[in-house]
Amino acid sequence: MSFNLAYDGECYSIEDGASVLDTLLDQGIEIPHSCKSGVCQSCMVEVVTGTPTEASQTGLKATFKALNYALSCCLVAKEDLGVSLPNAEDSEVPVSIIKMEVLNHNVLRLCLKTKKQLDTIPGQYLSLITSDSLARSYSVANIPEVDGYIELHIRIIPNGRLGAWLLNDARLWMEVKLRGPAGECFYVCEKDEENDFPMVLAGTSTGLAPLYGIVRDALAQGHKGSIDLFHGALQPEDLYLVDELYDLSQQHKNFSYIPCVMKGNDGDFYTCGDIQELVAKHVVNKKDARLYLCGAPDLVNAMKKTAFLSGIASKHIFNDAFLPSK
Amino acid sequence: MTLYEKLGGEAAVSAAVDIFYRKVLTDDRVNGFFDDIDMDGQIAKQKAFLTMVFGGPNNYTGKNMREAHAPLVEKGLSDLHVDVVIEHLGATLKELGVADEDIAEVASIANSVRDDVLNR
Ligand code: HEM
Ligand code: FES
User: Fold this and answer.
1) Residue A322 — pLDDT band, cuts 50, 70, 90?
2) Mean pLDDT over residues B41-63, rounded?
3) Domain locations in chain A?
4) Which residues of B touch A313 (CB under 8 A)?
5) Three-state secondary-structure class, residue B73
6) pLDDT for res A325
7) What is the rounded average pLDDT of the residues B50-67?
8) Residue A69: exposed, middle, or buried by beta-carbon count in 10 A (0-12, 13-18, 19+)?
9) The CATH number of the domain covering residues in A199-321
10) B72 lines ligand 1 (CB under 6 A)
11) Contact (CB, 8 A) for A233 and A205
12) Into how many domains does chain B fold?
């Protein structure tokens, strides 16, 4: 017996019980792979038609499971299947700028309305493609499904090309494009777990954007555990959305907002200190926490390592792989 | 039952990987070899390592092992470092309650690829 296997616009025949990886490799299709035994995770695909078998998701992070990703070397056909390489089938969708708002001296909030529904999870990232074909990645900072638009936070870097486009060319109702989404930094609570685990989120600069989206998403889904958000800045004026986040913390008992400033004055509304040290101290007795990190790559890597060594499971640490650019 | 099944298969690898990798990262004798590599990527590689030494399914050949470790040998990887890794492996399994004779078997699998790892 055999089934249909759709890949990249073609349809192949796959034997009952044969692996998707072997079947595609036999057709001369190049799929990254290494161990062929469900360990290295290099052969990951997105299952777009059909259901991933349990074996094909063993060992995957919860976020990858939520995205319907599977290890193609362990994915055997029991029904017709369609797979693609992760994010290979992203298309560009036109969107219009419906709001541009200054959040602080170098961060702008850009709200975009899609004509066609774009399935993004708060915390994932999208590429923004401007009218002059610049493309940059930004994280989704809100719940598009609830709000009816997509919110991005854009840091204006002096002499950056995107900043120049925003300041000089961008206008309300102008059409731009979005590509994506991508990324595995978002809220997820698996079927077999309670939604009362602690969450710790830490970011600097516009690394706040995905974290804000994740916090709102977790709250909207009724997360019961504590949610602690650290936003780190060099100086107080680098913080933003302070009032919004403070209000949110007043509305939800389990949500705390901890702005931290490196070069600040004691006694002000924020905590003085280095976010890396503050977070390291905070997670010491939270071994079951989910940790979400976003911001400067060096800082993220350092925080990741410290948290891991203090006992947080590697599969519970989430951060985005993309590097912010100009 | 194979050794891999006896230890608990993929679940055992997942349970062991964080414990093992924490030991390696905090040991100054070997952590230099792991420094400049991304943690997520490294966890996947360590899972491959553990699956292999647990006697689990893998497609690694001696040649793969030579290639994977050749850059490390250039940085001075030696018998001492293999001993340290095997020591941490044993301590990890002990923490997980694995029987001594099974630990010995895991160590002997690790030892059997020593020459490939050290490119000898
Ligand atoms: C004792 C026997 C050992 C075995 C069976 C072994 C096995 C493996 C395996 C299966 C991989 C993954 C290869 C891949 O998929 O690319 C790997 C990678 C690696 N091993 Fe080992 N290993 C051993 C000893 C060591 C030692 C002693 C060190 C250093 C102290 C070490 C450091 C590394 C590093 C840094 C990588 C990652 C290399 C890369 O990213 O390309 N290994 N090892
Ligand atoms: S090839 Fe390694 S997990 Fe599939």
Assistant:
1) low
2) 87
3) 2-86, 91-182, 199-321
4) 18
5) helix
6) 44
7) 88
8) buried
9) 3.40.50.80
10) yes
11) yes
12) 1
Angle at A102 between CA A98 and CA A168, to 5 degrees: 70
- Please give the structure tokens belonging to residue A146: 């609830």
Tell me how close the Cα of B19 comes to any Cα of chain A, in angstroms: 9
Task: Look at residue A316 and tell me whether its pLDDT is greater than 50.
Answer: yes
User: How far is the alpha carbon of B33 from chain A, nearest alpha carbon, in Å?
Assistant: 15
| pLDDT tens per residue, range A166-197 | 888 889 999 999 988 888 899 998 877 889 99
Q: How far is CA A152 from CA A126, A255, B16, in A?
A: 9, 22, 39
Q: What is the Cα–Cα distance from B95 to B13, expressed in whole angstroms?
A: 13
Provide DSSP, A202-256. Answer: EEEGGGHHHHHHHHHHHHHTT--S-EEEEEEESSGGG--SHHHHHHHHHH-TTEE
Nearest to A35 among B22, B43, B59 (CB): B59
Residue A323 has pLDDT above 60, yes or no: no
Instruction: Say which CATH topology domain A91-182 has.
Output: Elongation Factor Tu (Ef-tu); domain 3 (2.40.30)
**Is the Cβ of A323 closer than 8 Å to some Cβ of chain B?**
no
At A187-230, the pLDDT tens digits run 998 877 889 999 999 999 999 999 999 999 999 999 999 999 99
Query: Which CATH number fits the domain that encloses residue B22?
Result: 1.10.490.10
